[in-house]
Write a structure and sequence with these properties.
Structural class: alpha/beta
CATH topology: Rossmann fold
Shape: globular
Number of helices: 5
Helix content: 40-55%
Length: 179
């Protein structure tokens, strides 16, 4: 019997033309250059292409880690591992719901998660590794010094997240085979 392995998606999002908003894309590229990522982990960057994220999630994953700039009013470069809470859309009329999902070219990660939640199963585990931006301006290439300095720790945090998922999956398999 072949044992199925859990599949995880790590996706960098953001607009590289808006300074620190490119954090997730930069981190994803750095991770994709590594050779030590397990084969059950898919790494990708979508930039601002929310539809690409939706299409990928439709393939089915057990876990998702979104790498993104996250403006929360903190110190620039501060990293946080977050669990997103999808707002309740049940009070929206059918027309309002259609309008909410209509602009598929500007599907933010939260809208992409909402969309998938309406048409398929979301991953059981969803986290966001967010980095507090210093500068998000139109038409500015490159990350600020504070966000650039946070990239190595963000890479380590992502590798720790992968390690935790791998360990949890291994423990679950061991508990199942022991029963």
């Amino acid at each position: 019997m072949v044992e199925a392995r859990n599949k995880f998606l790590i996706v960098g999002v953001g607009n590289v033309l808006q300074g620190d908003d490119g954090f997730g894309v930069e981190l994803a590229h750095r991770l994709m250059a590594r050779t030590d990522i397990p084969d059950n982990i898919k790494l990708m960057e979508t930039g601002i292409g929310g539809m690409t994220l939706i299409q990928e999630l439709m393939l089915g994953y057990d876990g998702l880690l979104i790498l993104d700039a996250y403006k929360n009013g903190g110190v620039p470069g501060r990293l946080a591992l977050l669990e997103p809470i999808l707002p309740d859309l049940s009070a929206l009329t059918a027309q309002e719901l259609r309008d909410y999902f209509a602009d598929t070219h500007y599907a933010t990660p939260m809208r992409a998660l909402h969309f998938v939640d309406h048409v398929a199963d979301l991953p059981k585990i969803i986290n966001i590794l967010g980095c507090e931006p210093e500068d998000i301006d139109d038409m500015k290439l490159g990350l600020s010094d504070a966000v650039t300095a946070a990239i190595p720790l963000a890479e380590k945090m992502t590798l720790d997240w992968i390690g935790q998922r791998q360990l949890s999956a291994l423990n679950a398999r061991n508990n199942t085979s022991a029963n």
